[in-house]
Amino acid sequence: MSGKSSSSGKGHRGRLRDKFLEKGLSAFRDDEIIELLLTLGTPRRDCKQSARELLSRLGSLRKVFEAPTEVLTEIPGVGQKNAMALRLIHEVARRFLETRLQESTFLNGSADVYDYLRHSMRDLDVEVFKVIYLDARHAVMHAEDLFQGTMSYNVIYLRELLRKALNYNAASLVVAHNHPSGDPTPSLEDKHLTRDIVFSTSLIEVRLLDHVIVGEDKFYSFADRGLIEIYLREFKRNPAMTYFREVAEKGVGWDVMKRGGEQNNSTRPNTRKKIR
């Protein structure tokens, strides 16, 4: 009886693997994906029930991949090797998307950026403010977490943002932050912050292309909603002393603006016509 069960399990594994090779992952249910991964760390035992139990207890494929090892190993039949395989898949996906972002161009808008941001930001317990620096072709030059904590003017110093943009000689930026609540709807302060970033980056001829807020399973794009363009038009109507004073009061010095203008005029080609 035991030999028959083992043989049956091997046959089922073979069918799962053949199915993946022939049809890809889109042909799999979530429990079958987990089962196939569990077989990589379990040479002989049937993994179907463990896979279904993981999905039932944790609620979704994403939550299975993001669960800590001690939670995964509470499920009968899931050992350290199985847990490592599941965690590894999540980390490999995160690394892959980050690498693809670094090697690609920002041509397809907010959805492409969100593909990466949702893995790195949506499950964080604190708000993180990320900046992606782009060249004139919208190729990613660098991406980094600039601040952590509640997003407010006490934390988000525009001076640091502008200094980094000048250091990387960026032609444009995408900024993003997460909402730990899972709801990406922007607050009034999020809108004020975005407006001020548009104004201050415009002063040094660096364009803010988008501000993306990452939620649980969705995101909010200021560019997609037309707000970036509205803020730009507002700035162009009166880019004079009022805005210089407002930005300076929030921590951006005249030396930064002056240095930015000199750098734009002498060392960087005029790319404004190429940015849409």
Keywords:
about 280 residues; alpha+beta; DNA polymerase, domain 1; five-stranded mixed sheet; 5 strands; disordered N terminus; disordered C terminus
Task: Characterise the protein shown here.
The chain has helices at residues 2-23, 30-41, 48-58, 61-66, 69-72, 80-103, 110-121, 158-167, 188-203, 227-237, 241-249, 254-266; strands at 128-134, 140-148, 172-178, 207-214, 219-221. With 276 residues, the protein is α+β, with helices and mostly antiparallel strands. It has 2 domains: 2-94, DNA polymerase, domain 1; 107-274, Cytidine Deaminase, domain 2. Strands 2-1-3-4-5 form a 5-stranded mixed β-sheet, with helices on both faces. Helix 2 (30-41) crosses helix 3 and helix 9 packs across helix 10. The longest helix is centred in the first third of the chain and has 24 residues, at 80-103. It is elongated.
